């Protein structure tokens, strides 16, 4: 194949089409991160979330409205830039050995979506050290918000080694979350519906929640609508797991998108890099970041 500007434009067009097609086809199968995070579109370098506190609760209107300010705490999420780049040797183009690169271009699209999952689940996994909007550790045992009672969303115990232990862990999480209050000390009625775990715990958790012998009622089963297994959940050698509420106004985590995955190329045959390295570059880049939202929508169960 003659390597010239027209050839390279055609190659770039073909690679971009492969990238976009793969992105569209794969997007629907790699969406676990969207199930536990709330998506926000960003249009600047960073976004400030100063509304993560509670909306004022209702009260009787007597003489005039009772104005209440939102929580003064806030979370700032700064967008970060990520990339993955593939080098294609000029000789491969001349020898028309491009079939392998079409596969790798598809891999670039998959890598972008996979990294979104990695970022979100890594953040959840690190919640026992990361800070929430109120300045406290996201998963903790000593938090109060405004006039609320104690908000405990971190519990350690024997929660992973048998069916009964797993059910005890889920029962503990349900009791905690159902007791949470807003900033005015009123119940907020959060209901846990999702379990997030490692592949190590996926089958044990599913086995623990199947119907028992005749006459045995397991009411905690009615809460679990979704079990998400992620290889990025590694805490406690993969035996720690999480119980989430994903039906509140905001999910436990925030996914902030500045720039979706975009295909680009450095393929000018007269470019100095091409001259020196004898390679053309094709890559994907994206700008985004993730952050913690309301700690009351997530509970970490640590196996001891």
Briefly, what CATH class of the largest domain? Alpha Beta
Low-confidence stretches: none
Structural class: alpha/beta
Total number of helices: 7
Overall number of domains = 2
* Largest beta-sheet details: 5 strands, mixed
The count of β-strands is 11
**Strands in their spatial order, largest beta sheet:** 5-11-8-6-7
Question: Portion of residues in helices?
Answer: 25-40%
Order of helices and strands: HHEEEEHHEHEHEEEHEE
The CATH topology of the largest domain corresponds to: Major capsid protein gp5 fold
Distance between the termini: 62 Å
Overall pLDDT level: 89
CATH architecture of the largest domain: 2-Layer Sandwich
The shape, in one word, is elongated
**Which percent range describes the beta-strand content?**
15-25%
Gyration radius over CA = 24 Å
